[in-house]
């Protein structure tokens, strides 16, 4: 710091910095004012969808700015400063929420829910770590937090500055507000538009109103859903009357990550995926299997796989985190817990994407859950996916399915009484999880070993940063990932399936909008494969398409309707007499 003598010298030599450099000071002041006005204008006009970020969106007159300026002009100084600070912080928060909306719309096909979705930000950070590395992900997280704080602070300072200047030049400010108000009213009355966008804007007020309604609806939904989850037509059906049409069968429910309708119907991705499904249909038919396929409308899009899993299994529409928590904290009957209730199956989960504890396993009625650390994998991670699908299925065969089918009854009883029962399995395949680089390749089943063989495949693969430079390349690699998952599952069934194997496989949700398109449906394919004709005969009334690929006009059901249809097809309706087990 300068001493007193130097300070006096500065004063004697010309006063403050502003006094010594008046031209520069005026320029900086004008620039700061202009930037403050621009920042406020951007906050008032910023849309919450990336596709709406066009120049015409910002060539509008926001009515909230006019009304806000008029209010600040009539307030006394102390109240004006407080109101400016509150308004600025509010605009900063609104901007942060709009930016979150943009991100969520791009990834999940929906806006950000300020009641439920804060916990998903941690999942997003974990995904970044798996995709671009821990250091870079931490850098992105710090940058995002810094941006949010900067918006709150800078927006507050901007509104306070503008309010002070308007009070200092109240006459000119009043004339400007009246003029802008008149123009806004005229544009509204005449319907004036710029590139199809109304010049008279009121989007910020509408956004605030929508947020308030969203919060209110979310809080009301929490109570309403708890009542819905407590009502279940199958809740009190005895185990000996459930799933009688599948007794003695090994039933495998398999989710393929991001396997959506776009993979089958999009012109860029469909040729390879459709060929894999057509070839798989032929291979399985030659091995004695038949299949039927349809469509389910998922409760989620682009991500949030657990919401799709729980919707499918529970028969309830689980489209947000609070509903998921409410569901898994209760005892609502799921497809998996229905198998558990019968006492006729051993129930297991194969979840290579699980890297930490999963208390939901007991809710799903699983005797044993195998996470990523339990499957014996010694190879590299493929971005988010902890291991290739073929390895996960090989581990499933080694740890559970093979023990159920490749030993005699006496040996099974001696080794483990659980293995004397057929198996119900809940399998999650993750190789088709974004960022779809690098991708694994199919290898011989006898080459898999502990997964060390995948190091060379991983090194030869593409990197996410390279793939994500071009949308067409992202979509191409996504299509390849779906093909790999399908090849893995079909090859597994062909090699290790038996006459008693029943496979249900489906997608959990569509891939994000960058792959599936801005207006893609939430539909995913679902397929049931069986060797025993009587299994498929029970669903003949579903009118699904023969084979592994659903036809464009195949039935489309909401995903939450599947559980009841399945339990009814393979067991009696509640209150009816038990049906005879399939031979």
TrEMBL record:
<feature type="transmembrane region" description="Helical">
    <location>
        <begin position="58"/>
        <end position="75"/>
    </location>
</feature>
<feature type="transmembrane region" description="Helical">
    <location>
        <begin position="82"/>
        <end position="100"/>
    </location>
</feature>
<feature type="domain" description="Sulfatase N-terminal">
    <location>
        <begin position="284"/>
        <end position="513"/>
    </location>
</feature>
<dbReference type="InterPro" id="IPR017850">
    <property type="entry name" value="Alkaline_phosphatase_core_sf"/>
</dbReference>
<dbReference type="InterPro" id="IPR000917">
    <property type="entry name" value="Sulfatase_N"/>
</dbReference>
<feature type="transmembrane region" description="Helical">
    <location>
        <begin position="172"/>
        <end position="192"/>
    </location>
</feature>
<dbReference type="Pfam" id="PF00884">
    <property type="entry name" value="Sulfatase"/>
</dbReference>
<keyword id="KW-1133">Transmembrane helix</keyword>
<feature type="transmembrane region" description="Helical">
    <location>
        <begin position="137"/>
        <end position="160"/>
    </location>
</feature>
<protein>
    <submittedName>
        <fullName>Sulfatase</fullName>
    </submittedName>
</protein>
<keyword id="KW-0472">Membrane</keyword>
<keyword id="KW-0812">Transmembrane</keyword>
<feature type="transmembrane region" description="Helical">
    <location>
        <begin position="28"/>
        <end position="46"/>
    </location>
</feature>
<feature type="region of interest" description="Disordered">
    <location>
        <begin position="1"/>
        <end position="23"/>
    </location>
</feature>
């Amino acid at each position: 710091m300068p001493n007193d003598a130097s300070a006096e010298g500065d004063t004697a030599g010309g006063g403050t910095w502003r006094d010594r450099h008046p031209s520069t000071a005026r320029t900086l002041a004008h620039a700061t004012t202009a930037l403050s006005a621009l920042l406020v204008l951007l906050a008032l006009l910023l849309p919450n969808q990336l596709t709406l970020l066009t120049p015409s969106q910002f060539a509008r007159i926001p009515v909230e700015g006019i009304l806000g300026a008029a209010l600040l002009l009539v307030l006394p100084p102390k109240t004006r400063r407080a109101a400016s600070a509150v308004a600025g912080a509010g605009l900063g928060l609104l901007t942060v929420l709009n930016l979150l909306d943009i991100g969520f719309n791009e990834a999940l096909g929906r806006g950000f829910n300020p009641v439920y979705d804060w916990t998903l930000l941690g999942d997003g950070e974990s995904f970044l770590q798996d995709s671009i590395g821990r250091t870079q992900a931490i850098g992105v997280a710090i940058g995002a937090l810094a941006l949010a704080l900067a918006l709150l602070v800078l927006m507050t300072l901007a509104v306070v500055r503008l309010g002070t200047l308007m009070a200092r030049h109240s006459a000119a400010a009043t004339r400007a507000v009246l003029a802008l108000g008149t123009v806004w009213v005229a544009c509204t009355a005449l319907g004036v538009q710029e590139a199809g966008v109304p010049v008279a804007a009121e989007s910020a007020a509408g956004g605030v109103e929508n947020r308030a309604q969203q919060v209110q609806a979310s809080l009301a939904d929490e109570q309403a859903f708890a009542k819905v989850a407590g009502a279940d037509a199958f809740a009190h059906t005895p185990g000996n009357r459930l799933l009688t049409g599948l007794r003695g069968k090994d039933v495998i429910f398999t989710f393929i990550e991001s396997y959506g309708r776009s993979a089958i119907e999009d012109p860029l991705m469909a040729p390879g995926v459709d060929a894999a499904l057509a070839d798989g249909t032929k291979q399985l038919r030659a091995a004695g299997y038949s299949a039927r396929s349809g469509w389910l409308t998922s409760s989620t899009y682009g991500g949030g796989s657990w919401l799709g899993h729980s919707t499918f299994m529970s028969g309830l529409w689980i489209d947000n985190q609070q509903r998921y928590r409410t569901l898994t904290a209760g005892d609502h009957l799921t497809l998996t817990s229905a198998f558990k209730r019968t006492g006729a199956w051993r129930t297991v989960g194969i979840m290579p994407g699980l890297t930490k504890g999963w208390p939901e396993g007991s809710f799903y009625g699983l005797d044993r859950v195998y996470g990523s650390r339990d499957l014996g994998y010694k190879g590299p991670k493929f971005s988010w996916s902890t291991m290739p699908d073929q390895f996960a299925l090989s581990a499933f065969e080694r740890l559970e399915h093979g023990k159920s089918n490749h030993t005699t009854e006496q040996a099974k009883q001696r080794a483990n009484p659980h293995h004397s029962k057929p198996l119900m399995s809940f399998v999650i395949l993750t190789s088709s999880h974004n960022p779809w680089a690098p991708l694994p390749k199919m290898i011989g089943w006898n080459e898999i070993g502990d997964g060390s063989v995948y190091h060379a495949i991983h090194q030869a693969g593409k990197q996410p940063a390279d793939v994500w430079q071009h949308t067409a390349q992202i979509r191409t690699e996504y299509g390849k990932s779906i093909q790999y998952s399908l090849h893995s599952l079909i090859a597994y069934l062909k090699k290790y399936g038996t006459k008693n194997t029943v496979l249900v496989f489906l997608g959990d949700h569509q891939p994000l909008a960058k792959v599936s398109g801005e207006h893609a449906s939430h539909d995913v394919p679902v397929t049931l494969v069986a060797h025993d004709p009587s299994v498929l005969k029970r669903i003949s009334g579903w009118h699904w398409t023969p084979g592994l690929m659903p036809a464009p006009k195949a039935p489309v059901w909401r995903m939450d309707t599947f559980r009841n249809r399945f339990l009814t097809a393979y067991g009696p309706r509640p209150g009816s007499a038990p049906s005879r087990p399939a031979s």
